[in-house]
Design brief:
Pantoate--beta-alanine Ligase, Chain: A,domain 2; binds pantoate; 11 helices; Rossmann fold; 19% strand; six-stranded parallel beta sheet; 2 domains
Length: 284
């Protein structure tokens, strides 16, 4: 496995693979890898000849400086895991390699047809512009056949699909296929996240209630309305000491707009567990 830190070296390696007719899978990550990432990597390894994993804590998608500083950085541990899994290339650039000063200071502006104006986008203005800024750069550099993203970040996945399928960039990325992979959970139900590393043992125990309430809400959905389920999820999560719901929205899985039907609906939640902001979602 080769660890690459410059764009030029990445382009050179990709050129060589492409000239040999190899299919390339890309798994973009911000590191602090866990079993959720490993599931994306495994799928890429099984569907492509070459797998590139990027490990880059992207500064332009953080609208909270503190969050950026505290984001776990574990490149040695991540590389050891990826090498063991059989990954071909790890791309781990420094921010200066990815962005010039102008890009760092001026927000990237992309029209997502409103998908970025709800939920995470409303709470974290500019976040998805930063995500798409880095993901599109990675697509240009790696020119992958497939790129893998977790469904835990449901809105991110919808926005990346939009960017690739329906935007002015259509055609730019050739036949790139965006592959969404299911949420990986602990046996307790807690969705795996790099942010879980910041939970104390007690907070970790508390956080389990989030998925417990979401799973229970699928039962409530059989007997009552979207609006009642929405209110009850918020009430029951907030009733757990140490948890505070930022939002819970039941939306159409394609448009991400509020819906009053459970058909094609997904419930997206963001909860503070102590100081740690956790997200999860459930399909109805
Ligand atoms: O989901 C993430 O970890 C990040 O948003 C991504 C897609 C790697 C872009 O920085």
């Amino acid at each position: 496995m080769l660890i690459i830190t410059t764009k030029q070296e990445l382009i050179n390696q990709v050129d060589t693979c492409k000239s040999q007719g190899k299919r390339i899978g890309l798994v973009p990550t911000m590191g602090a890898l866990h079993e959720g990432h490993a599931s994306l990597v495994r799928q890429s390894l099984s569907e492509n000849d070459i797998t590139v994993v990027s490990v880059f804590v992207n500064p332009t998608q953080f609208n909270n400086k503190e969050d950026l500083i505290k984001y776990p950085r574990t490149l040695d541990r991540d590389s050891a895991l990826l090498e063991k899994m059989g990954v071909d290339f790890v791309f781990a650039p420094q921010p200066e390699e990815m962005y010039d000063a102008a890009e760092m200071s001026k927000p990237f502006d992309f029209d997502f047809g409103g998908l970025d104006k709800v939920m995470e986008g409303k709470m974290r203005p500019g976040h998805f512009n930063g995500v798409v800024q880095v993901v599109s750069k990675l697509f240009y550099l790696v020119r992958p056949d497939r790129a893998y993203f977790g469904e835990k970040d449901f809105q991110q996945l919808a926005i990346i699909r939009f960017m690739v399928d329906r935007s002015a960039l259509k055609g730019t990325f050739g036949k790139l296929q965006i592959v969404g992979c299911p949420i990986v959970r602990e046996s307790s139900g807690l969705a795996l996240s790099s942010r879980n590393e910041r939970l104390s043992a007690e907070e970790h125990e508390t956080a389990i209630a989030i998925s417990r309430v979401l799973f229970a809400s699928c039962e409530w959905a059989k007997k009552t309305t979207v609006s009642e389920v929405q209110k009850r999820v918020v009430k029951e999560v907030n009733a757990v000491a140490g948890l505070e719901v930022e939002y819970y929205e039941i939306v159409d899985a394609d448009t991400l707009l509020p819906t009053d039907s459970f058909a094609n609906a997904v419930g997206c939640i963001t909860v503070y567990c102590g100081p740690v902001r956790l997200i999860d979602n459930i399909r109805y």
